[in-house]
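Structure, all two chains, one model.
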Amino acid sequence: MKKFINQIEQIVPEMVQGLVQTSNGQLRCLEQTTAVIRNDPQFQNQTQVGLVSGGGSGHEPLHAGFVGDGMLSAAVCGEIFTSPTPDQIYAAINAVDQGQGVLLIVKNYSGDVMNFDMAREMAEADNHQVATVVVDDDIAIQDSEQGHRGVAGTVLVEKILGAAARAGYTLEQLQDLGQQVIKQTKTLAVALHAATVPGVGHPGFELADDELEFGVGIHNERGRNTEKLVTAHELAAKMLEQLQGEFTDFTQQHYAILVNGMGATPLMEQYIFANDVADILQQQGVAVDFWKVGNLVTSIDMTGISLTLLQLQAGWRDWLTADVTTLGW
Amino acid sequence: MKKFINQIEQIVPEMVQGLVQTSNGQLRCLEQTTAVIRNDPQFQNQTQVGLVSGGGSGHEPLHAGFVGDGMLSAAVCGEIFTSPTPDQIYAAINAVDQGQGVLLIVKNYSGDVMNFDMAREMAEADNHQVATVVVDDDIAIQDSEQGHRGVAGTVLVEKILGAAARAGYTLEQLQDLGQQVIKQTKTLAVALHAATVPGVGHPGFELADDELEFGVGIHNERGRNTEKLVTAHELAAKMLEQLQGEFTDFTQQHYAILVNGMGATPLMEQYIFANDVADILQQQGVAVDFWKVGNLVTSIDMTGISLTLLQLQAGWRDWLTADVTTLGW
């Protein structure tokens, strides 16, 4: 394992310190936590519902890179691929509540759901108004207990809710909007190489030189199948076909699309894949109103790509294109 | 070699098409070229000096991802690691000249310098006013004929000149400013794994599990030395020491710093390394007025980091923080 690190145990605190130190004053770290909070001048002058997200580290820029005016108020950084603790989440809720309440945006993993729930209960006992939305956009795997995982589509949820919160939506309106957006957000991911978790020291699984893993998660979970590597165009067609099956009246609707690199995938290849997605949808006459391509929700150094389709309703595109001052969007 | 591509010969045109198709209308491709030009509504209404850059592909988001209001007017995308042809560069000059002339921003490689020079001569014969600045920020290697290479610092030059051009600087003023900025921009890069050029099919060089290459270029050029892998902090200290030697009165000045991932380096590790850089400079009492961290000037899928120091003069920080509408900044 070769990585630019110091001690393995210090990876998350040093990463958070690095993010804050190089944020040009936009972010600060809550004392004695690895929670990152807005520090821009607008933050103190606005009164809006606070938005808190978080989860295991290793997905950068998600979530801390999306803290800023027009997106998240704070992000809580857990250990690598491990949920943050309830007390850290509680500290973030407490720090961002400006009297309008706080919405938690949680990816659907049992550890995250449990710890954010405990933090919500602690905060409610302390007279904070708190609501939660749980993102479950991954269509690859459905766990019988937990349901679908929350993956790259989370960033679109954060962007839409961040813009709506700044525009003055109430806690209840934001929770409602979040649930509507999540219902229309579907993601599928593939990998050519698994990630190497620093504490493990080797890739999470091995693939042959002509294989790809179809339907991976963002924590080195294997997918539905190990398959033969195909061209970018064939892959785009297959992923689109499976995603389309999740929507009714697919070709009649408007979409936002996220092509997401998972850490070690060159941007060049992401654009080639996105080009194939765009060509196929154009041939089908499907309207894409918003595109985003890049490394937004990574899995350390996984070589992989995820494709997210968000079926838009009136006004959502404006939230997606609204100005934002974050490091990662 | 496992990559998300179709045919190797189609990589660059498909990448450019993907970039344009997913730019939400911000970019267009000049017909029968792989040159990308601004397509935003402001572009036709402004009158400013045109800024054209370009070079071999494989460094995305550089250069096409930096085309937009407040940065480049156009970028010419050559084949992978290969200069674009003079006729493509000429087409870009011709398309962006609004009567105020065009500045070419060229990385110091013999192929690029030669082809941009030929394009300039073609354009001048056609009554365009054209000037050139050549970026040579890499301190690792000095070729006896060509001098220092142009690497990641190029993006800071493009950002400063882009903001100044929008603010109404003349061609002569921009060339002068560019030369001043370039003189104060110094970069050093290291790699843990070389890039795999698609047409080659394997990494450009091999390193052992405990080795890093110190002083690499952005085209898989080996560096000054192959060395033992050290911690991020030791590496930051060593790179800073060598970069500092390039400046007079180092600790008395103000700096902008770019920590740049070279394609397959997780953002997590870039922030850890940046944290070490920030800590060391703080201990030295050096003022850093602007930070940028991320994959800006990559080398396909190289696992590596470059560190750029730009010694600031009055006003330059404002150009660096000025608003910009590009895909990559």
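Residues 267-283 of chain A form the longest helix (17 residues).
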